[in-house]
Write a structure and sequence with these properties.
Layout lengths: L1 E6 L2 E4 L4 E9 L3 E10 L6 E6 L5 E3 L7 E6 L4 E6 L8 E12 L2 E6 L3 E6 L1
Parallel strand pairs: 2-11
Antiparallel strand pairs: 1-3, 3-8, 4-5, 4-9, 5-6, 7-8, 9-10, 9-11
Length: about 120
């Protein structure tokens, strides 16, 4: 089973920046896609960005170029860099990874989340 731990969250003022990281560990065959999700109070959990082992990225249109996802395969870590933060960015940010036990058997793992609060 894969374990994910996020870090880097905290209190940020409007217009500020944040850098989140998530490291994967545990027992698995391989991890292909990793990503970041966000849950805002009163809203459904939404996908913000994903990245494959080969570096192919996918972004949500709502980010509008304010976030960048990256990955360090050697460290089994995925990063999220955000700039120009807004109060509506406040929420719990979750890291996810699709871990394969064997070639075609996989399960999506989730980290406990890290709180990002953007003051108005």
């Amino acid at each position: 089973q894969v374990q994910l731990v996020e870090s880097g969250g905290g209190l940020v003022q409007t217009g500020g920046s944040v850098r989140l990281s998530c490291q994967a560990s545990g027992t698995y065959f391989t991890i292909n896609r990793m990503g970041w999700y966000r849950q805002v109070p009163g809203k459904q959990r939404e996908m913000l960005a994903t990245i494959t082992k080969d570096g192919e990225t996918t972004y949500s249109d709502s980010w509008k170029g304010r976030f960048i996802i990256s990955r360090d395969n050697a460290k089994n870590t995925v990063y999220l860099q955000g700039t120009g933060l807004k109060p509506e960015d406040t929420g719990v940010y979750y890291c996810t990874a699709r871990a394969y036990e064997v070639s075609f058997n996989y399960r999506d793992a989730w980290g406990p989340g890290t709180q990002v609060t953007v003051s108005s």
